[in-house]
Amino acid sequence: MEYFNIPCHLSGTKRFFNTILPKKIVALTGGLIIICSSYLTAKAQEPVQTASNIHTVQLFKKGWKMSYPIINLHPQEQLRLEFDDFAYDSKNYQYRIIHCNSNWEESNLMPTEYIDGFMPNSVDDYQYSFNTTFDYIHYTLDFPNEDVKLKISGNYIIQIFELGNEDTPVLTRPFYVSEGQVNISPRIKYTSNSNFRESMQEVNFTIQHPHFRINNPREDLKVVLQQNGRFDNQIDDLKPLFIRNQELDYSYNRENLFDGGNEYRWLDIRSTRFAPEHVANISFFDPHYHFTLFPDKFLSQKPYFYREDFNGKYYIDVKENRDPVIEADYVYVHFKLPVKAPFIDGDVHVTGGLNDWLLNTSNRMEYNFNTHTYELTMLLKQGFYNYQYHFLENGHKKAEVERFEGSFGQSENDYIIFVYYQSVSDNYERLIGVNISNSLKYSISK
After folding, report:
1. In what order do the strands lie in the sheet with 414-421?
2. Which terminal Cβ of the chain has fewer Cβ within 10 Å, N or C?
3. How far apart are CA 114 and CA 98, in angstroms?
């Protein structure tokens, strides 16, 4: 029997295999078998991508703008995606949803196995900016909806692209759908390890599963811990330390440690008329506004001081107008961090929700030898922002917070615990439980 390998690189062909054919290996008449290679090798997805014309992308549970993009499968909740497109005319934007495993590799599933409905679908809700120095169009999408419903739990990404350019998405964002099959009980505390007690936080937890059978928890479960929604410092290799009757205990004293960090710095750019604290001056260089901040200081050299923050998040707002969605302007913000000499072992980044906690050229500071200062200019929509300075050592993926911000065990942080399950009979990773906890305030299980 002869075999042919079809790469499925044409969007039409790929869409045909994805939506019509019921099997991953499709038998055709005459003894010919076609194997679509896109289902033989998992494709790694970048969970966060943004084109240069797209700004201020926010994905949250509908009705709660400061929430993480996590919803329940039953009853199914909705997410809201909002973004601005720097354009004069609206575009025929489409969206699609892709199921992934816990490593953000595309699942070996047909779309019909995780979607009830058809894809792609159009993004029809948009508004033009009004009385702003930057022209933009604000798009809004609520999903799942009447066109698309989700059938299974797990990691997902949503992609937005122009009609006819399916292979070139203008934005990609991750979200999570939980079954809520297990109960997760966290215990966030000072670490019992005396060497790190002053600077780190210990995230212990137990998983109770009285109504969900787990035969081989060391092999069938995967647990991922995140701090404030960051990807670079997440922990994803923990196994249960103790296995009891319907309870799994993850009470480590070293493997589950996070840098406590510090409370986030804040930036208020809601008004172009009045300079708030931390803003040295507001200038208008036709046709745009510039906010120059006072040089920031090393908080690592100061004692810990609690101040309310959003753990890196931001919200859009404007003081002089009524509708911040379309009347908030975009302004240039100039960050400054004085340092006697540039670091040769890595780079300095401004991080937070303002750039999705990424560590790339868009938020990497450059050293000014004339002023002995690290500098960065970012284009931001008017609002209230949290940010920090992180150091990324050469050759590393995890950023260091202690150098500029300090690291304190008593800092307030959010911690998210994801519990994935895949038995030998499952063909995808199920997200069977999520817990969102705060080191000082609350704990929410999904």
Report:
1. 235-238, 221-227, 414-421, 430-438, 443-445
2. N
3. 9
